[in-house]
Amino acid sequence: MTTSAQLLQDLFDRIRQEAATVLDGISEAELAAAPGGNNSVAWLLWHTARVQDAQIADVAGHEQLWTADGWARRFALPFDDSATGYGQSLQETAQVTASARLLRDYLEAVADRSNTYLATITDADLDEIVDENWEPPVTLAARLVSIAADDLQHLGQAAYIRGMQR
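Now predict its structure.
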């Protein structure tokens, strides 16, 4: 019988797999592509990792890998270390440039940390309220599904841009 933890690990592992597919053989020009002046593939992948890193760290009660493991320094972006991409202008999103290797390594580190945390989840944990700033308050289950949905949506956008380029 599949446990909730295993189901969540499978869901989040699909994020890892989709990101790897988008990054497979990508060029610097493809990473920088932002059709119609919208978000680039690099920004979409960075944002995918940042959202997962920040939100999993919050519910797990640990520091984000972005700061704890020096990813902010390695990316050297002109934003505050707390930036995840949420609410950024197109001018700001255009400033996210990174190599495929750097993006892949950060995405993998985030996926590994998420997997470690998700392995500890019990069914009872899923009903825990993790954010009372919403009505109704947000449970851990709702937050995890929200993270995965956001990440998969952005990975789909990145894959679509890659497909347009080919």
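The helical segments are 4-23, 28-32, 41-60, 65-68, 71-75, 90-93, 100-118, 140-165.
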